[in-house]
Amino acid sequence: MTPDQQKSIWSWAFYDWANSAFSTVVMAGFFPLFFKEFYAAGASSTDSTFYLGLINSIASVIVVMISPVLGAIADQLGRRKGLLILFASFGSISTAGLFWVEQGHWIQAACLYIAAVIGFSGGNLFYDALLTLVSPEKDLDRVSALGFALGYLGGGLLFGLNVWMTLHPEAFGLGSSSEAVRIAFILTALWWIGFTTPLMLFVHEPHPPEKKVMNIAKSSLNQLFLTLKKISLLPQTFQFLIAYWLYIDGVDSIVRMALDYGLSIGLNSKDLIRALLITQFIGFPAAILFGRIGEKIGAKHGILIALGVYILVTIFSAFMDAAWQFYLLAVVIGLVQGGVQALSRSVYARMVPPEYTAEFFGFYNMMGKFAAVLGPALIGWVAMMSGSNRIGILSLVILFAAGSYLLWQVDIRKGHQLAKAFQVE
């Protein structure tokens, strides 16, 4: 591998370091906590859980609607990197806006959060699509895992600083923990856009012949169906997407709703934040390890191992009632979360026709976000209807089990061969 290739890979991977600040500090960490205790102050525990689930679902629906079209436009214009920067900037500005939302104004907070999630998800679409551009085929598992590992480390470092600020605001000249959380939103925005710079400078994307944007826009309304038709011609790729849709629903639901669930069953917010921080730092070496596992035993088997752990974690979480149990779950999730994400991305990358990477990854991201429509909304609805947050969490077992079953039947080697030979008639 040449020095330029290595620079390109590390610059690409550092975008995970950049945007994981949002997924860790905001999405998984302080927004659910601050939403329940500050933005939605006065609402009951089950109502605020329902609101949070609904907010996540609305954001996901929007991403579902725009992802395939954005992917197609990026492929035809050859502007994956430019669109990534655009969406990262939009997400960063929206995140910073949370600083100015006052207590009780949960609708305003929801709108900014939804905008930030759109920026985060759109950026990820183009980031994932650049994987096959920067990485040789034989190194896909390792390079994908490197991105997630740097994401866990970078997000964890900023989150660690933010946790310190909230636990000891006086050490930073701040008046309260609430002020520290609001400052965390500003720091996350700056971190996100600042560490996108290496990708801006050192990842180079070849551009196809110029095409008129208006012509592309006119044809984009049919793009979802055209992409689905292409994927349907690749049966192994199609079945993997269905499996991924099911099991990533559970993964994303745990990421987005874990702190809300812990608060709802009476655990202390400081314990929950510390546990999430543990997950981040364990996730760094674990993601690297899973990249190696993917090379040794096959990426599919690595994902199946992780999903088996998630099933056990979900069952255990429905019955926990002590902080030490939440810490234990944080450690276990940290061992597998990055692995299932990284290996899923590299498996899919192998089964995507090279000339349609952004378009196919648009659909991949759409499936992942469509899953996030169901999970948080389901947990919130069941919690509100039953009056118990413990009951809803068990529904995730069905998603993990069904996803595992379908994944087991996917022939990745055959899917790779079909993708390489793929031609649209």
From TrEMBL:
Keyword Transport: yes
Domain of life: Bacteria
Record's signal peptide: none
Record-annotated membrane-spanning stretches: 12-35, 50-70, 82-101, 107-131, 143-163, 183-203, 224-247, 272-290, 302-320, 326-348, 360-384, 390-408
Membrane-topology descriptor: Multi-pass membrane protein
Keyword Lyase: no
Pfam families assigned: ATG22
Keywords linked to the UniProt accession: Membrane, Transmembrane, Transmembrane helix, Transport
Record's subcellular location: Endomembrane system
InterPro entries: Atg22-like (IPR024671), ATG22/LtaA_families (IPR050495), MFS_dom (IPR020846), MFS_trans_sf (IPR036259)
Segments forming domain Major facilitator superfamily (MFS) profile: 9-413
PANTHER family tied to this protein: AUTOPHAGY-RELATED PROTEIN 22
Name of the protein in question: MFS transporter
Organism annotation: Marinobacterium maritimum
